[in-house]
Amino acid sequence: MDNKQEELEAIVHQESYDVVAITETYWDDSHDWSAAMGGYEPFRRDRTKVMANKEWKNGTVVTEFILLDFGNGPELDCLLFLMFLSIYFVTITGNTCIAVLVVVNQHLHTPMFFFLGNLACLEICYSSSILPRMVLGYADGDRRISVRGCFT
Fold first, then answer.
1. pLDDT on residue 119
2. Residues in the chain where the model's pLDDT stays below 50
3. Helical segments of the chain, H only
4. The pTM is what?
């Protein structure tokens, strides 16, 4: 074979496909597609032409995500629910105690404990953003979370 075009023509004629799909090609307009491919009609949407044409934009809108679990089946959902719920409560309680102690105790008003208190507050916020939704997903079986719920 001299080039990829001849190789493609040979494969198409040998296998006699109903549909031929080619992506990311550099097939330019100097070649006659119908003659070269034995009667196949081209349906082209070249990247450069698609991106230039405003009506060919991607219209996909993501509205929700699905939280995947460990794939163990519904028999372990109760155990995982209790485990993650207890981890959540321990995390919130421990970080709240750290933040309160740093604010209340005058001896802990040093830069190191200031940053430790800030990290505790951050972990409270991070843990409270997605973990309650995950725990609720184990309780009711609905594993979906909205985009807005994922970012807030």
1. 96
2. 1
3. 4-15, 33-36, 47-52, 77-104, 111-140, 147-151
4. 0.53
Note the pLDDT of residue 115.
95
Q: Give me the helix-helix angle, 111-140 and 77-104, nearest 10°.
A: 160
Structure tokens at 7: 């190789």
Q: Which has the closest alpha carbon to 88: 150, 143, 141, 130?
A: 130
| CA-based torsion, 137, 142, 146, 147: positive or negative | positive
Would you say the C-alpha torsion 48, 53, 56, 61 has a positive or negative sign?
A: positive
Beta partners for 65? 145
- Residues whose CB falls within 8 Å of the CB of residue 124, separated by 6 or more in sequence, listed in order: 91, 92, 95, 96, 99
120 CB-near residues (< 8 Å, 6+ apart): 95, 96, 98, 99, 102
Note the pLDDT tens digit of each residue in 39-83.
Answer: 666 666 655 555 555 555 555 667 777 777 666 667 777 888 888
Hey, how many other C-beta atoms are within 10 angstroms of the C-beta on 1? 10
